């Protein structure tokens, strides 16, 4: 089978492209579309931004350096070359960049143009926050961001919507050496996992994609979860919201906003919009990094991981899921199917705080997540989890024990913070020292107290 896509309006069928080729290399080297630039090759700079759209779905900006060519199967792709009208008049986004003097050397400009083009297609209300969020994944080293933001404001509501044709998708693609499987059901996914135990499971590829973009390593065999219907949906009942493991951050946000707004705010700080359009909660969990941002939140919220293997489904409490540094309780023949997040009761307060050097597009030094109920001024229940403090994201059990039954006061928050030294002996690395991590984790308890008792006091960085 082949990879079929619509590239800048032209239907294309590819039969001999390596499944390990990045979309960026494909565009630049195979298609000669050099407007899409390579800056960092790891999802950080946005120079390689393109817009993708599947079926009647929405247009989304993504980093082409992190994607593999077969991920485009069935999609419509727009690069900066595809934006101009047939008479070669500039697209309104490009014209706005010119009119507002929003480019100097121009290296970053195609990436900004594509991020803004996708933004104009989202239907987002145009606010300083949404404009900033839309371009937070794009770096410019010379122009300064004000003219780029002005360009965004001047064009944001002017662009026509584009609906691509629906395209058939392939379930298997090979160049003869490497295989790319794209199963469409959970049973097929599990069967392929058993048949090919060394294959890489690919969700969004924002972690795995580094293998092609940075390490330049072939994949051999890939099993994509993108078209497995059962794990791409979100279900809700009175008790819980169940996120399929392949649900992207962007798709999860509305449900997270409803059940745990602080979790949603933290997710909005994961990478950039380009990363959140591809990256999945399941990928974050299975990557099992000690600094994966969603993990402390899921631990504090007492989520349940739903695994599936040849013997069917099994539930794994989140407390038992992260077994060692980057290791999980998933069996070799299992995949993560879904994540069940209990809906917090009305008296439960949930907060998540991410500490990183930059607000946007940065990996955490420490993440603290807190789920607490207070009855008559006394802490009645609490689950606290941290990332960045140990080899795995983990609960702060000594701190929880010190807090339960205590009056919820600033004095208590300061005192129980000391118990964190029983829970964690964090590492020093280039992100933060052991001392910094320990202090900041303690301070987050005070922040939690401020946040839950003095709502007028701002505790987040805010755009003014
Ligand atoms: C520029 C950039 C910024 C980033 N910023 C952040 C950040 O701020 N915070 C953060 O936490 N992370 C960040 N990340 C990391 C990454 O985006 C997240 O970890 C993301 O959630 C990974 O999801 P994915 O779908 O892309 O996973 P993939 O890369 O597709 O997969 C990740 C791992 O999970 C496995 N896997 C995926 N799905 C399943 C499944 N269903 N069953 C079994 N195994 C599976 C894969 O085999 C692989 O080992 C960043 C990455 C980049 C490139
Ligand atoms: S080249 Fe920098 S994000 Fe892709
Ligand atoms: S205009 Fe030079 S990097 Fe942005």
Q: How would you summarize the topology of this molecule?
A:
Layout (H helix, E strand, L loop, with lengths): L2 E5 L2 E5 L8 H8 L18 E6 L5 E4 L11 E4 L13 H8 L9 H12 L7 H8 L9 H11 L16 E3 L4 E3 L4 H10 L4 E3 L7 H4 L7 E4 L9 E3 L3 E5 L4 H11 L1 H7 L5 H6 L2 H7 L6 H7 L3 E6 L2 E6 L4 E3 L2 E2 L6 E8 L6 E7 L10 E10 L2 E10 L6 E2 L1 H7 L6 H8 L2 H4 L10 H20 L11
Parallel strand pairs: 1-5, 7-9, 8-9
Antiparallel strand pairs: 1-2, 3-4, 3-5, 6-7, 10-11, 11-16, 12-13, 12-16, 14-15, 17-18, 18-19, 19-20
Helix pairs in contact: 2-5, 8-9, 13-14, 14-16
This protein binds flavin-adenine dinucleotide and FE2/S2 (inorganic) cluster (2 copies).
Outline of this structure?
This protein has 464 residues and is α+β, with helices and mostly antiparallel strands. It is 30% helix and 21% strand.
Key features of this structure:
about 475 residues, alpha+beta, Ubiquitin-like (UB roll), Uridine Diphospho-n-acetylenolpyruvylglucosamine Reductase, domain 3, Enolase-like, domain 1, 3 domains, five-stranded mixed sheet, five-stranded antiparallel sheet, 20 strands, about 30% helix, globular, binds flavin-adenine dinucleotide, binds FE2/S2 (inorganic) cluster
């Amino acid at each position: 089978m082949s990879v079929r896509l619509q590239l800048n309006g032209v239907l294309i069928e590819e039969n001999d492209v390596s499944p390990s080729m990045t979309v960026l290399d494909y565009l630049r080297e195979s298609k000669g579309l050099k407007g899409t630039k390579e800056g960092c090759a790891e999802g950080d700079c946005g120079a390689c931004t393109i817009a993708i759209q599947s079926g009647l779905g929405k247009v989304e900006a993504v980093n082409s350096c992190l994607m593999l060519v077969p991920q485009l199967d069935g999609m419509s792709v727009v690069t900066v070359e595809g934006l101009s009208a047939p008479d070669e008049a500039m697209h309104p986004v490009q014209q706005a960049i010119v009119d507002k003097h929003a480019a100097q050397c121009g290296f970053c400009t195609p990436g900004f143009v594509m991020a803004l083009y996708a933004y104009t297609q989202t239907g987002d209300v145009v606010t300083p926050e949404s404009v900033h969020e839309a371009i937070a994944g794009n770096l410019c080293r010379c122009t300064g961001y004000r003219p780029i933001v002005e360009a965004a404001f001047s064009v944001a509501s002017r662009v026509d919507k584009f609906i691509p044709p629906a395209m058939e998708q392939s379930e298997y693609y090979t160049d003869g050496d490497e295989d790319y499987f794209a199963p469409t059901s959970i049973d097929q996914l599990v069967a392929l996992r058993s048949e090919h135990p060394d294959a890489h499971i690919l969700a969004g590829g924002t972690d795995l994609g580094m293998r092609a973009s940075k390490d330049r390593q072939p994949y051999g065999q890939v099993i994509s979860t993108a078209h497995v219907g059962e794990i791409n949906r979100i279900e809700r009942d009175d008790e819980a919201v169940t996120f399929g493991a392949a649900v992207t951050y962007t798709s999860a946000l509305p449900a997270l906003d409803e059940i745990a707004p602080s979790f949603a705010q933290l997710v909005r700080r994961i990478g950039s919009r380009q990363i959140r359009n591809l990256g999945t909660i399941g990928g974050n969990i299975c990557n099992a990094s000690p600094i994966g941002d969603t993990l402390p939140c899921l631990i504090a919220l007492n989520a349940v991981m739903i695994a599936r293997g040849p013997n069917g489904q099994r539930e794994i409490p989140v407390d038992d899921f992260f077994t060692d540094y980057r290791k999980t309780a998933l069996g070799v023949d299992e995949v993560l199917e879904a994540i069940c997040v209990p809906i917090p009761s009305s008296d439960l307060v949930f907060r998540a705080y991410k500490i990183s050097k930059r607000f946007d597009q940065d990996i955490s030094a420490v993440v603290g997540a807190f789920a607490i109920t207070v009855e008559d001024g006394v802490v009645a229940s609490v689950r606290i989890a941290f990332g960045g403090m140990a080899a795995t994201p983990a609960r702060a059990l000594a701190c929880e024990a010190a807090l339960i039954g205590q009056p919820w006061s600033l004095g208590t928050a300061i005192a129980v913070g000391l118990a964190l030294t029983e829970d964690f002996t964090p590492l020093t690395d280039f992100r933060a020292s052991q001392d910094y991590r320990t202090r900041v984790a303690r301070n987050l308890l005070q922040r939690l107290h401020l946040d839950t008792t003095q709502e007028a006091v701002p505790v987040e960085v805010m755009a003014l």
